[in-house]
Design goal:
It is a single chain. With 695 residues, the protein is α/β, with parallel strands linked by helices. The protein contains 25 helices and 23 strands. The protein has an 8-stranded parallel barrel with strand order 3-9-14-17-18-19-20-21, surrounded by 6 helices. Helix 1 (16-26) packs parallel to helix 8 and helix 2 (34-72) packs antiparallel against helix 10. The longest helix is centred in the N-terminal third of the chain and has 39 residues, at 34-72. It is globular. The protein starts with 5 loop residues before the first strand and ends with a helix. It is found in: Cytoplasm. It is an enzyme of class 2 (transferase). Residues 19-74 form the Malate synthase N-terminal domain.
């Protein structure tokens, strides 16, 4: 008998809302019959569930062996040695030199270097903003942020002095990106300019010009009737940059999706993007506005032919990892289905509605996070083979992005790439998740350094370098992306401009940014730096030593002051509470969360993982005690309450610690940090969010 709220489909119990969505929204127009889909879906779970379970057991077994080594060698003062890690199979032999065979990849991935956004799938308005972030106003980005001088923009009416400085900064950008054959852009009076490199002029549209450098386009919008254009000798009213070339639509770390209702909402938004029908209405300034996907941009090329440029970012979708299960689907034995299997089938089904609106090559781009080692990458490859067969898709239609964010993956990166060599389109680094796994893997080795000092530790430099070096050695140049992680502070754009240029200089072809505005500003770096040249300069480098990568960031014999320990504890616990309270109580998986110094940071579960593991490590090794943690939690709860004052949906934690699901979840994350699988926060977060929803 099927459980209440579920319907039977091919021997599975499927939550009624999910079955209805699949049958009435996702399947019509896909060419896939309902019976065939459900039979294939059930077969998918039947075949891959035991393999998935075995892979998770393998994770646990390896961790248990590493823990036991540390118990047997308490005086080692280091991580488990390389020879031991090879003996237990944590490290595998390097594959013979090879080059990836991925084909049919869009130019935004294979050929053009530029910014990448990540956006939570459950927020339709944010989704549309991110999809439409392919183009952004450089004038607006400079005027509206601290990018010019480190100062926040003035409130009130337009500041002509600041506006003049913006126009001058944009002119300097043009001088560097598209220099004139003679003179400078300050002398330009309009019309087609004589460029030092004539090929940089790509098209015209009336008085507007289309330029390009390093594969990225620049629009010069000429309007002498515009307030800005009227003050410019050529009538230049705006400079618009091709900005977010791609956007990851996220079903994982930035969302709180804990049941069938949440999963259907996520799948429906992804389907709407693929069909081009997604809309979001909101009120601004007393008026109701509706946001939709932007259309393409039409130009006349310099040879007189029509030239169409995409108006939207290329959309990728991040499925969940291998760990979590979902109550949206129950297996014949009554257990929950693996969420990653559901995501693979349903996000690919939805992507079949693309019809070239998104991918010109017909590719489906799935970013796969939190995979540990080559066997788990091979599992994902086999899964996507099966999904392609199930949906009648040609082999390797589904491309895979491997997030290099787990220690066993970065230590075996070439072997991981080899396991998905014919469908891989992306590797990237992520400091937060990678550090969370670094701490958890060597939890028993000793206390770790304070978080900020971990960023300067030996292993992190090796990690960042090896990601590029191994990717280039495997043939990623001109074929796949090498990515770098997020800039988390959306209000600190001057600092981003100063620091994030390091990413293209490293040979990375993309890097994450927290907003469309940040994408426009970061795009300037890809005009400043030729990533193709940076990669060519690094081609053939010997990867940083594996021994450096395996060096655990331990405190050793160093003694920290009481003030340093207290500050680190407060910093971690404030971050945990500030994020968890929105996740558990409001279902917000990603938002700008004020830190201890009231600086807004874009936070997702990766932040929570590193913070909870860090406190758990110091608890385990006695740098802090349970009483100190509880006192700091109570103190930081009051801080977070004050930071959320004025939010009508917010429920304070201070004074009701024993009744606040968010507070209790935060405490559990810290006190049970050592027991969480790979240090992940999802199991506890999901349980507490489900309680909060039920109440």
């Amino acid at each position: 008998m099927t459980a209440a709220g579920y319907v039977e489909r091919a021997g599975l119990a499927v939550a009624a809302p999910l079955a209805e969505f699949v049958e009435e929204e996702a399947l019509p127009g896909s060419g896939v019959a309902a019976e065939a889909f459900w039979q294939g879906f059930a077969a998918l779970h039947g075949h891959f569930t035991p393999i998935n379970r075995a892979l998770l057991a393998r994770r646990d077994n390896l961790q248990a062996q590493i823990d036991e080594w540390h118990r047997a060698n308490p005086e080692a003062g280091s991580g488990a040695p390389e020879a031991f890690l090879r003996e237990i199979g944590y490290l595998v032999p390097e594959p013979a030199p090879f080059r990836i065979g991925t084909v049919g990849v869009d130019p935004e991935i294979a050929e053009i270097a530029g910014p990448q956004l990540v956006v939570p799938v459950l927020n339709a308005r944010f989704l549309l903003n991110a999809a439409n972030a392919r183009w952004g106003s450089l004038y607006d980005a400079l005027y509206g942020t601290d990018a010019l001088d480190g100062q926040v923009p003035p409130t009130g009416p337009y500041d002509a002095t600041r506006g003049a400085r913006v126009v001058a900064a944009a002119r300097h950008f043009l001088e560097a990106a598209c220099p004139l054959a003679e003179g400078c852009w300050a002398d330009w009076q309009g019309g087609a300019p004589a460029l030092a490199d004539p090929s940089q002029l790509r098209g015209m549209r009336g008085p507007d010009l289309l330029l390009a450098s390093n594969g990225l386009h620049i629009e010069l919008i000429v309007d002498r009737n515009h307030p800005i254009g009227a003050a410019h000798p050529a009538g230049l009213a705006d400079v618009r940059l091709e900005s977010a070339l791609s956007t990851i639509v996220d079903l994982e770390d930035s969302v709180a999706a804990v049941d069938a209702e949440d999963k259907v909402a996520a799948y429906r938004n992804w389907l709407g993007l693929m069909q081009g029908t997604l809309e979001a209405s909101f009120t601004k300034g007393g008026r109701t506005m509706t946001r939709r996907l932007e259309g393409d941009r039409e130009w006349t090329a310099t040879d007189g032919s029509d030239l169409t440029l995409k108006g939207r970012a290329l959309l990728l979708v991040r499925n969940v990892g291998h760990l979590m299960t979902t109550p949206a689907v129950l297996l014949p034995d009554g257990s929950e289905a693996f969420e990653g299997l559901c995501d693979a089938a349903i996000t690919c089904l939805a992507a079949m509605h693309d019809r070239g609106r998104n991918s010109a090559t017909g590719a489906i781009y799935i970013v796969k996070p939190k995979m540990h080692g080559p066997d788990e990458c091979a599992f994902a490859n086999d899964l996507f083979d099966a999904v392609e067969d199930m949906l009648g898709l040609p082999r390797h239609t589904v491309k895979i992005g491997v997030m290099d964010e787990e220690r066993r993956t970065s230590a075996n990166l070439a072997a991981c790439i080899h396991a998905v060599r014919d469908r891989i389109f992306f590797i990237n680094t992520g400091f937060l998740d990678r550090t969370g796994d670094e701490i958890h893997t060597s939890m028993l080795a000793g206390p770790v350094l304070p978080k900020e000092r971990i960023k300067q530790a030996t292993w992190i430099a090796a990690y960042e370098a090896r990601n590029v070096q191994v990717g280039l050695a495997c043939g990623f140049a001109g074929r796949a992306q090498i990515g770098k992680g997020m800039w988390a502070a959306p209000d600190r754009m001057q600092a981003m401009l100063e620091q994030k240029v390091a990413h293209p200089n490293s040979g990375a072809s993309t890097a994450w940014v927290p907003s469309p505005t940040a994408a426009t500003l970061h795009a300037m770096h890809y005009h400043q730096v030729s990533v193709a040249e940076a990669q060519a300069a690094r081609m053939g480098e010997t990867p940083a030593p594996l021994a450096d990568l395996l060096t655990v960031p331990l405190l050793g014999d160093e003694t920290l002051s009481n003030e340093t320990i207290a500050h680190e504890l407060d910093t971690n616990l404030q971050a945990i509470l500030g994020y968890v309270v929105r996740w558990v109580e409001q279902g917000v998986g990603c938002s700008k969360v004020p830190d201890l110094a009231d600086v807004g940071l874009m936070e997702d579960r990766a932040t929570l993982r590193i913070a909870s593991q860090h406190v758990g490590n110091w608890l385990l090794h006695g740098l802090v005690g349970e009483r100190e943690v509880d006192a700091a939690l109570a103190r930081m709860a009051a801080k977070v309450d004050a930071q959320n004052f004025g939010d009508p949906a917010y429920l304070p934690m201070a004074g009701r610690e024993d009744r606040s699901p968010a507070y209790r979840a935060a405490r559990a994350l810290v006190m049970q940090a050592c027991e969480q699988p790979s240090g992940y926060t999802e199991p506890l977060l999901h349980a507490w969010r489900q309680r909060a929803k039920a109440s």
